[in-house]
Write a structure and sequence with these properties.
The complex is a heterodimer of chains A (about 170) and B (about 425).
Chain A (H helix, E strand, L loop, with lengths): L2 H22 L3 H21 L3 H26 L14 H21 L13 H10 L5 H22 L5
Helix pairs in contact in A: 1-2, 2-3
Chain B lengths: L6 H15 L4 H38 L15 H11 L10 H18 L17 H22 L3 H32 L4 H7 L5 H4 L1 H15 L10 H4 L9 H26 L12 H25 L5 H29 L1 H4 L3 H44 L4 H8 L2
Classes of the chains: A mainly alpha (about 170), B mainly alpha (about 425).
Chain lengths: ~170, ~425
């Protein structure tokens, strides 16, 4: 086992711990903070995979936007400092069964899929290649544009829902 | 290699030879040198505010016809040191009901987020922390941690004013990130790379402030808004919410927010210099890296001076004006600047290789035209709004003389 593997194992342990804290902490803001720790760990995993672009995007999108949005929503909607609502309702055994089944389903499916592992170094122009691939009609131009349209539709939908009709 | 021409490269070579001479493996030597480099950059960043605070106070004092700090040390140079010692020996108070862990993490996170930006800022041709190929995106991503720090500090203090400051943070910092990122796209497009060294190298023919004045202006304005200083200091607006997000902080924890703010203001200057003013480049900077450091620091200081100048000159912007300025002016303008740059740069591409100045000239003309167009649209709309306001206000003053003071501000014009 080399240093990189040990580092990865420690990182994974931290991430799993943080992820479990997200769902077990009583205080909602604390669980949002643990979520940020998990996201940051994910960014480090991307760095270990030599995917710097995804690491930066992970931090921008998930910590800079989504986590801040979650914290802001909590601050606006709850009595912010004293929040001790029960964490479970009477359906929790059912939810646990579904979650465990889903976990095993995903892990078995993933273990069946052969992942292409290669030791060739990441090409220096990997960013440029990705940009070309996203705009090349023969590669990912159509899914890329579809995603854009989907996001636009979601944005318009959000504005319509949030609009005050009285105004 | 001479020490005076390239001090960092000289010391690095000296240390490498020394450590290799001790029989250490090459990998470990590299690791030790990298760690040392991190310490040097971080120490530079953390001690810089000592000088910046003194300079800023003197400059603001001069603008307000005062002297400023001049008692401790020559010309008051040691005033900040004395202030720092005072902050260190002050009682450290944690308010009752505060969220202790989050309350203590927030100031550290604020400093970390600014300090991390310096990892990718190049000082000279061979003096830089690291040259990421996603440098520009990295700047944005660590910058968003600062927003988080201010929000957490405001929330964890268990104070209504602090919480109001945190709310304003989200309204301001998150909104101004949108035109900030958009304006950052323009130099990235012109350079064809997101690496900071690549962007500096791409400005060998002309500085990007010539080819992209709109983007430079928007980047500067939104960056100042991101630091949360006057005229964008709504997060701590003293006359409205006492001190905003850092109201409960005392001693060095308050000092850390302060250090983060001053260093961030200088970082705005450094980033503007790197992205739009050619960074470390200048005559002789490639042969003698020390010259590059001098050019870079001068350009950064220029940017920082403008930030201080704005702070000393402009009053605090009203919160609705702050949001209007962002969403109704800066965001559309930044978007059009991106589209405009892409189209014009593509149109003049055939002549770009023979004479790169043609690209700069075409982009400059297009930018100035777009800026004048945008400003004339805004002024026309403002005139229409003012006319409508007057039409509404005039009868109100006539009929209700008794409560005329309600309408006085509108009727005054």
């Amino acid at each position: 086992m080399d240093a990189l593997q040990i580092f990865f194992l420690v990182l994974s342990a931290i991430m799993v711990f943080a992820a479990s804290q997200v769902v077990t902490t009583n205080n909602l803001v604390h669980s949002a903070l643990w979520l940020i720790v998990t996201f940051f760990g994910m960014a480090i995993v991307f760095v270990l995979l030599e995917a710097g672009f995804f690491a930066a995007v992970q931090v921008v999108v998930y910590i800079g936007a989504i986590a801040i949005l979650i914290i802001f929503a909590i601050m606006l909607t709850r009595r912010v400092m004293t929040d001790n609502t029960p964490q479970t309702n009477r359906l929790w055994p059912l939810a646990a069964v579904v979650a465990i089944a889903l976990f095993f389903g995903i892990t078995t499916t993933l273990s069946l899929v052969p992942f292409g592992v290669s030791n060739t170094p990441v090409p220096a122009d990997e960013l440029a290649r990705m940009g070309v691939a996203l705009t090349d009609p023969n590669q990912f131009a159509v899914p890329f544009m579809l995603t854009g349209v989907l996001l636009l539709a979601a944005m318009i939908g959000a504005i319509t829902v949030a609009r005050d009709d009285q105004a | 290699m001479d020490f005076f021409q390239d001090p960092v490269g000289f010391i690095a070579k000296l240390l490498t030879d020394l450590l290799l001479g001790f029989g250490l493996p090459a990998e470990l030597t590299g690791l030790i040198l990298t760690t040392l480099g991190v310490f040097v950059v971080a120490t530079f960043g953390l001690t810089l505010p000592l000088a910046l605070i003194w300079w800023e106070r003197r400059v603001v004092a001069r603008m307000q016809d005062r002297v400023g700090p001049n008692r401790v040390g020559p010309e008051g140079l040691l005033q900040t040191v004395a202030d720092a010692i005072k902050l260190l020996i002050k009682e450290d108070i944690t308010p009752i009901g505060a969220d202790k862990v989050v309350y203590n993490i927030a100031p550290i996170l604020a400093v970390i987020s600014v300090l991390m930006m310096w990892a990718v800022i190049p000082f000279a041709v061979n003096i830089y922390g690291t040259d990421l190929n996603v440098g520009a995106l990295y700047i944005i991503s660590v910058g968003s941690l600062g927003t988080l720090a201010i929000m957490l500090g405001g929330w964890a203090s268990n104070n209504k004013y602090a919480l109001l400051g945190a709310f304003r943070t989200v309204a301001q910092l998150v909104c101004y990130e949108v035109p900030l990122i958009l304006s950052l796209i323009v130099p990235v497009m012109l350079a064809g790379t997101m690496s900071m060294q690549g962007i500096v190298a791409a400005q060998s023919n002309y500085w990007f402030i010539v080819a992209a004045p709109i983007a430079a202006l928007i980047f500067f304005i939104t960056s100042v808004a991101e630091t949360g200083r006057a005229p964008f200091d709504l997060l701590e607006a003293e006359s409205e919410i006492v001190a905003g997000f850092h109201i409960e902080y005392s001693g060095m924890k308050f000092g850390m927010f302060f250090v983060a703010e001053f260093l961030h203001a200088f970082t705005v200057g450094a980033l503007t210099a790197t992205l739009f003013l050619g960074g470390w480049s200048g005559p002789g900077a490639e042969q003698y890296p020390i010259l590059g450091v001098i050019y870079f620091m001068l350009k950064s200081a220029l940017g920082y001076f403008v930030v201080v100048w704005m702070r000393a000159t402009l009053p605090r912007i009203r919160i609705d004006h702050m949001l209007d300025l962002n969403w109704k002016f800066l965001v559309p303008l930044a978007m059009s600047a991106v589209v405009l740059t892409a189209i014009v740069a593509k149109l003049v591409e055939p002549w770009a290789v023979a004479n790169p100045w043609i690209v700069a000239l075409a982009l400059f003309i297009a930018n100035v035209a777009a800026l004048f167009g945008a400003l004339s649209i805004v002024s026309q709309m403002a005139r229409g709004m003012r006319r409508a306001e007057q039409a509404q206000a005039a009868p109100a003053v006539d009929h209700h003389h008794a409560d005329a003071h309600d309408h006085a501000p509108a009727a005054a014009h």
